What we know:
By secondary structure, the protein is an all-alpha fold. It has one domain. Helices cover 83% and strands 0% of the residues. It is built from 17 helices and no strands. It has helices at 3-59, 62-70, 77-103, 110-139, 142-165, 169-192, 204-228, 230-238, 241-257, 259-277, 281-318, 325-332, 335-351, 359-408, 415-432, 442-462, 468-473.
Amino acid sequence: MNLSSKIAYNTIIQLLGKVVSTILGLVSLAMMARYLGQAGFGSYTTVINYVSFFAIIADLGLTLVTVQMISLPNADETKILNNLFGLRLVSIVLFLGLAPIVAIFLPYSLYIKIGILIAAISFLFPALNQVLIGLFQKKLRMDKAVIAETLGRILLVAGIYLTIIFKQGLIGILWASVAAAAFNFLIAYLLATKFHFLKPNFDFKLWQEVIKKSWPLAVTIVLNLLYLKTDTLILSFIKSPGEVGLYGAAYRIIDVLTTLPFMFAGIILPILTSAWFEEKKDYFAAVLQKSFDLMAIFSIPITAGTLILARPLIILVAGNDFADSGLILKILIFTLEAIFLGCMFSHAVIAIGRQKKMIGSYIFVSVSSVILYLIFIPIFSYFGAAFVTIYSELAIALCSAYVVWRYTGFIPSFKIIAKTSAASIIMWLCLYFIPTNFYYSWFGLIIGGLIAIMVYFISLYGLKGVTKDDLKILLNKKL
């Protein structure tokens, strides 16, 4: 199987896996939201958002550095992976251990603080799993990661169901998350043994080399947190749990959707890295352009469709109590364009080893975003948070694109974006003229979604946004 075929295979497998995990994610969201209600789901959002601060900081940039280092020519995969595994274990235990300690001094209820302690345990396993994901990405065998994730999601849904049956509340849901995360990691670890038997190593000299490579990413990740997570934290401090719940329900949909670009970029990163270090600049540009086009092909119609289907989707998933989340989702969905398109540029920055050049941009965007959150959230609540989030994601995407242009000379072609936008408008008009009430049932929503997909891709093909040559790529032809 050639490189193009492997990329196509991994992309298709992950897309199928993400369809399944998205469905299971929506099922778990529906069960939690309906069971906990606005206030309870707001507490859940507060707990998860708070602990994720510490978990993301603990990443230290190791997830992306894993892929980068083992993709270099003559890399000692086993030694690198084992030491990254050890470093990851130490960092995650240290930082997650801080989460419940710091929470003691925050104005949260005892119930929330207990939830934070349990959630910290659940975040341990996904953090370790990221090293395995790096290995699967390098080997272009993300089907194994998909299997582990799917089985973990199934166990989570089962755990939430049992929590509801036995009326264990938020604490029961969090323990179900611990069990599901541990199971996901166990399956992924067992599947990874086909390539390497991973064990934590503590070669401090190699750790120093890893930290030298990762510290710019670690700094940008910390700064990234300031604009990604501050919105929910500020909401949790100054607004009611119900308002946090409404915002959290809409943001959860965005979180589900944004796994797609990072999934694909994770596959492309080792290819971009190899191409750049082997000085295959034309190939580097070709891969980046096709990746950019693919992100546009998926993100623009999702945004257009959400403008019609947001409210019925939220109501069908979370219930009538969360109807107001539909409007929040219509605003937040515009972050999707910046995330999808900017994701490829941010990974290209890593591929060319220019992470340090992004630090200034992250400082500016983080500081300005926090200031804007502090100004607009007290006045406009979750609407203010949503609009500032759009600003922050767009700003980082543009900064990443600038760094890539400056050091590679790459300027993306916008032909596909124009054709994708035209096809999305045709799709939107089709959805718009269907009576709104039609979408307020699962049958209507699914049929509406299928109609949208069919109209969009027929329109895109008619506009030559997708050609026969593009389809041949999926049939093992040259990239």
